[in-house]
Write a structure and sequence with these properties.
Shape: elongated
Largest sheet: none
Distance between the termini: 44 Å
Strand content: under 5%
């Protein structure tokens, strides 16, 4: 659990740093910068840590639909948690990329 939380936290921090440097590079207004950085941080770091810390709930959901004889290995569970964290971070960065260029919050 600790390893997945740290790994997901690292991925979330990298995603937030990526968005931070891109907002500075593009010279977005400060209010827009704070909004996008906060959004990406909340989704990627908060969501990833929530997934990593709620792994017992994920384990129960994962095994609920399967045959009780077939067990989910710890590696499968850890892989699922890491993939969920990566997916959240990727989704947050892609949302920033598209939304800050083409959406209603696009820089003028």
């Amino acid at each position: 659990m600790l390893v997945t939380a740290l790994l997901n936290l690292t991925v979330g921090l990298l995603a937030t740093i990526l968005v931070f440097t891109d907002t500075l590079r593009r010279d977005l207004p400060p209010r827009t910068q704070v909004g996008w950085i906060g959004f990406v941080a909340a989704v990627s770091i908060g969501g990833s840590l929530t997934v990593a810390l709620a792994d017992d709930v994920l384990f129960r959901l994962w095994t609920a639909g399967s045959d009780p004889v077939i067990a989910v290995t710890p590696l499968q569970l850890l892989t699922g948690i890491v993939i969920a964290g990566l997916a959240l971070s990727t989704l947050a960065v892609l949302t920033y990329g598209v939304g800050s260029r083409y959406g209603p919050l696009a820089a003028a």
